[in-house]
User: What shape does this take?
Amino acid sequence: MNIYKYFALISTIFIAVIFQPTFLARLSLPGATPDLVIVMVCCWAVTKGPEVGAIAGFLAGFLIDVAPPGAHLMGIASIILALIGYAIGIVGGGPSRSFSRPLVISGVGATTFFLFRTISGVLVGNDISLYNFSINFLTQGIYAAALAIFVYPGVTFLDKKLGPVSRSDELRMK
Assistant: This one.
């Protein structure tokens, strides 16, 4: 990846971390809050592979951990998102023209992140009812897939417009 793509990665993750609590959390949608950050990590992982997925996940998790209100253990979101980004990069990476693949992968990634965050919260002492968990679990995946409809084309557009990945890709394109 060239420096412009890293700048685009950092910018999009930063914008998602700011946009999620300021706009998406204020919507009165039933169930969970749409998680733009995990969708952004999933789209970068699908587009660029496991290494970039892990970098995007760690960066997003770090920004989530330091953003207020920090009412959770520091570092948990970084570890979970880095692992999810890496796993999605392995499973979802590779050439494909299917538009439904990033939608499904974003939904699975969002529900996995929600599951691990809930487990870590319960281990720390937070209470959650089974009804709330099931409703939030289902809506998290649906909202993530719906957000991926808009996010994935933007990430692929940035990836194509900001140049080739490396010198070998540059030579192959000529």
About this structure: Helices lie at 3-22, 36-48, 50-66, 76-92, 100-124, 130-161, 167-173. Residues 3-164 form a domain with the Arp2/3 complex 21 kDa subunit ARPC3 fold (CATH 1.10.1760.20). The longest helix spans residues 130-161. The mean pLDDT is 83.
